[in-house]
Amino acid sequence: MLNRFQRSWDLASACMDLLMEEKALIAFPFLASIGIAVVTLSFAVPLVPTFTLFWSTGADHTVSPLTYVALFVFYWIQFSLIIFFNTALVEVAMRRFEGEDASIGDGLRRALSMLPVILTYAFIAATVGTLLRLIAERVGFIGRLVVAAIGLVWTVATALVVPVLAAEDVGPVEAVQRSVELIKRAWGEDLIGSVGIGLVFGVVMAVMLIAGGMVVIAMFSVGNVGLAIALLAVLVLGVSLVALAQATLQGIYAAALYRYANGDDTTGDMNKGLLESAFQPRR
Fold first, then answer.
1. How many structural domains is the chain composed of?
2. Which of 83, 154, 157, 180 gets the highest tally of CB atoms within 10 A of its CB?
3. Domain containing residue 193
4. Helix%, strand%, coil% for the chain, nearest 5
């Protein structure tokens, strides 16, 4: 177990090396975040009653079908944005693995060329998400656990859909099938790497929030409101940058995992031995 965590740490370090060489990659999750923020604000008013009902544990409620329609559209747009920019990110990362130069524009052009497929796959993902949400509200505690397990299986099974979309000219259903096929070869490595990267960045953000929060509170307590607000802004910016870096590294990891699960060991400037260890497909 300790070796697996060490391997995840080393993998995060290797991926960070690529990110340091291609700092512009962080632009993709940044653009996705802006788009999601705009969409969330646009849907905030109609979705607030929906989430209030979802989280309520009181008497039964009747949710209007239009509410579920609004929720579905929200999911669809959100997934479309995420998948679009992740496809662009993975396209650039995989070209860098091949030792080629690739720009932000190259990634966006690839994502645009796959836009109909991306929208269709996002439609499928939004349908699954809405149905699981709807079912979860109509079953008991055990049923919710089952629905959560189904959602987890869907998430794992589709983990490599984005790299498939970036690398192959396939439709949305074929992309899901290819993702399942590839995950079967390296599902353990996928989970270990994703959890490892999440753990590392989770610790970093927790330390930043605790230490930074204490400093901000101290400044407020001594009456230095101006400095406290400035430090709070710096803290929010710092945590946001770390979150964007994590999202970027997850995309790089997905690209590398796809290549190794697909039998391609080309890694460009990345540490070949390290990635072979992390991505060795199961026999």
1. 1
2. 83
3. 2-279
4. 85, 0, 15
